[in-house]
Every structure is written in C-alpha cells, then in structure tokens.
Specification:
Helix 1 (2-23) runs antiparallel to helix 2, helix 1 runs antiparallel to helix 5 and helix 6 (134-156) packs across helix 7. The protein is mainly α and 252 residues long. It is globular. It starts with a helix and ends with a helix. It has helices at residues 2-23, 33-49, 53-56, 63-90, 100-128, 134-156, 165-185, 189-202, 218-226, 229-242, 248-251, and strands at 93-96, 206-209, 214-215. It has a 3-stranded antiparallel sheet with strand order 1-2-3, covered by helices on one side. Strand 2 (206-209) and strand 3 form a beta hairpin. It contains 11 helices and 3 strands.
C-alpha cells in the first residue's frame, strides 16, 4: 500500500513538471496557455499534498505578504525598465512595452517557473537532505537553474544558441538571489515579483534594432541584457547581499 501511494505521488509530481514544460513556453499558440498550466499545477499539487499544497508550492501568503509582493513587483518593474532601457540605448535599440497578452502570459509562466524551479525543487532538496545548510542548497539549485537555461537554449527553444560566460554568471547569481529569498521567507511571493518584472521587460516587450529594422529574439535578448557586464555585476552583488540578514519586513 505504501509503495502504491509513493508511486502515485511520484507520478503526480512528474506530471506537474510535465505540465509546466508543456504549458509555460508557448508550445500552444494562445497567450493564456501558461494560465491553464498554473491551474493544472495547483490542482495536481492539491492531489499530492492536500492541505500542505500551498506550503510545497510556496504560496503560503497572508495579506501583508501579498501587499509586499505587489510593492516589490511595482518597484522592480520600474527598475527593470530603466536598467534594460539604459543597456538598450547604448546598443541602438528601442524598447516598446508588450501588450496585455504578453503581460498575462509572462505573469503565469514566471509563476509556474517559481513553483517548479523555486519552491518545489528547493523544498524537495531541503526535506531530503535535512543536514545540508541552506547556502549549499541555494548554490546547488542555482547551478541547476543556470544549466537548465544553457540546455534549453542550446537544444530545445526555437531561438537557439550558446549562452556566453557573463550570461551564465548572471543566471547563476540571480538564481542564488532567488533561492535565498525563498529559503528565508518560505514562499515565492517576492522572488516571483522580481522574476515577473524583469522577464516582462526583457522578453514580454519588443526590442527593435533601429539600424537594421530588426526585432531581437529571445536568445539575443538574454545575451544582450544578462550578458552585459554591468548587469552581471548587479546580479552578483544581489547574490552576495542575499546571504546576509534580510530586513524583518521582508523575512517575517
């Protein structure tokens, strides 16, 4: 009986990951496909963990945390816009914000990523390797996060290419920052807000090369912005700072 329950749980978790992969990355031509993925992930998570589902997927949020999450999103949305705009102008690129379809798709696909590659992965490793310190788990998952992006851009995504060194450094550093936020708060609210804000500006908007009348694809945007030395430095600084004590307003 125990083996049957364990196999059912493993199968459902595998199905949750599969739903994320299928519905989050525009394999379906509708902008709301990522929202369907979120609904399925929530439903399958409830089947696996019942009352503990919100804990495992990192959505245990009270009113205060929801308000702080919205505030974090607003602050980082403005910050992301000006940082990316600065780099874009230096490279002769115009940035046009995406429409509501891009906004909705990005909202749910980043939420799905935070649930799968954030809460579930971190909490799964933490519960399995109970004696491992949080910093080690954070670094390990950040490395996985970086390698997944490397593999997807090399073999899976439509716009393919080899991510450069500074792009990989940025991905690793921002992964550490995100992981530390989740490990210290127990939820994905703040990490999702930051992720959503950045991705909406970087991938959910249009980046037009004026000199060539050409729009940058996803791979080129990753390379241009996350591969920028200044942005890499910011990501590394955030990763280092995240190992320090977070303000009580954030971690409580």
């Amino acid at each position: 009986m125990f083996k049957l329950l364990l196999n059912r749980k493993i199968n459902l978790i595998a199905l949750i990951v599969l739903v994320h992969l299928v519905f989050s990355y525009y394999y379906f031509p509708r902008y709301y496909s990522s929202a369907i993925g979120t609904f399925l992930i929530l439903f399958l998570s409830w089947l696996v963990w019942k009352k503990e589902a919100l804990f495992w997927i990192g959505l245990q949020l009270n009113r205060k945390k929801i308000l702080l999450t919205l505030l974090a999103f607003a602050v980082f949305l403005v910050g992301s816009y000006f940082v990316i705009k600065f780099v874009a102008l230096k490279n002769g690129i115009q940035v046009f914000l995406g429409n509501y379809k891009n906004f909705v798709h990005t909202l749910f696909y980043t939420l799905n990523e935070e649930i799968i590659l954030g809460a579930l992965l971190l909490k799964g490793i933490k519960s399995t390797f109970k004696k491992s310190p949080d910093w080690m788990i954070s670094v390990a998952v950040a490395l996985i996060f970086m390698l997944i992006h490397l593999a997807f851009f090399k073999w899976i995504f439509h716009n393919r290419g080899d991510l450069a060194l500074f792009t990989l450094i940025s991905l690793f550093a921002v992964g550490v920052f995100r992981n530390n936020l989740i490990l210290k708060t127990g939820h994905i609210g703040y990490s999702w807000a930051i992720h959503f804000a950045w991705i909406y500006i970087m991938l959910g908007s249009h980046h037009f090369v004026k000199a060539q009348t050409y729009y940058l694809n996803d791979f080129e945007r990753f390379e241009l912005y996350l591969g920028d030395v200044r942005i890499s430095a910011i990501c590394v600084a955030l990763a280092i700072l995240s190992f320090m004590h977070l303000p009580k307003a954030i971690s409580s």
